[in-house]
What we know:
- By secondary structure, this protein is an all-alpha fold.
- The protein has a single domain (about 5-330), classed as Formate dehydrogenase/DMSO reductase fold, CATH 1.20.1630.
- About 75% of the residues lie in helices and about 0% in strands.
- A two-stranded antiparallel ribbon has the order 1-2.
- Helix 3 (about 55-70) packs across helix 4, helix 8 (about 185-220) runs antiparallel to helix 9 (about 225-250) and helix 8 (about 185-220) runs parallel beside helix 10 (about 250-275).
Amino acid sequence: MDLATLWFFIVAFFFVGYFVLDGFDFGVGMSLPFLGKDDVSRRQVINTIGPVWDLNETWVIVAGAVLFASFPEWYATLFSGFYLPLLLILLALILRGVSFEYRHQRDSVKWKAGFDRMIVIGSVVPALLWGVAFGNIVQGVAIDENHIYVGGFFALLNPYALLVGVTTLLLFFLHGVLFVALKTDGQVHEDAQKLAKKAAIPTILVAAATVIWTVAIAMGREAPLLWLVIGAGALAAVSLIAAVGLSMVRRDGWAFFSGMLTVLFAVVMLFSALFPYVMPSTIDPAYSLTIANASSTPYTLQIMSWTALIAMPLVLAYQAWTYWVFRKRVTRKSIEGAPAHA
């Protein structure tokens, strides 16, 4: 395996980490209207991700930086062509972060309700648009001979990309609900388990359609990793069904873990279907960006490899330590006994 191919999989690794971790953040935010029956329960839901949401979000910054350094052509075409949807994602993430920090600054019902709505919007928009973006990347977009996207914004809203977007939306929603069930007690815990059951069937049906369509795209492209596309899609389906089943028998920890595996295998499936391209062209296959023609120089990738070898274990260790420190449930009693700004 050459360095360019290795860094393709490292980019995939960081996006897997981002979608697994920030995915349940989005789901928790989207679940707020369904699980927050009063201010205490809303605080209980928000506090499940209070200590970790900003750490989870840094994964997308690292993923973007790694993409820029290892595949500058891919980065340039992606961020120029997908400028509007990526800008909307950025604004939504800012909106959500501001809401987490400012919600408790005033003891006003209207003030808190406004920021609660912003949390929901700031969670729905990225959950949907990230799926739309990756759906287009996998399917291919209108790239000309200069590696410039010429399709326009509305061309990105095609059936497959929208299907992938709805899939990520539902997967992240279920993922977040399972996390709330794991991290809370009392009425919020019970409501989260009921909500997971309601979300299960539409999530399974939409995800199954995405797996079938993605496999069809990979077969039409004669993808060299077709076996991995099919295998990852099948494992994602099994993990999703297992997550729902484990939630029904109240095995919250294993249900959430299965939800994590579902997101992991889903992202692996998308990257496997893409390989060896990074952005296929629908105008002419010769105009496509591939791992070979979009990557940095071997010397740059060599330096990055040594840096990653040192830094990545430290990052993973710190992330694991953070989750270990904040592993306890957020109980209703702890919220009722805390100041209103907590």
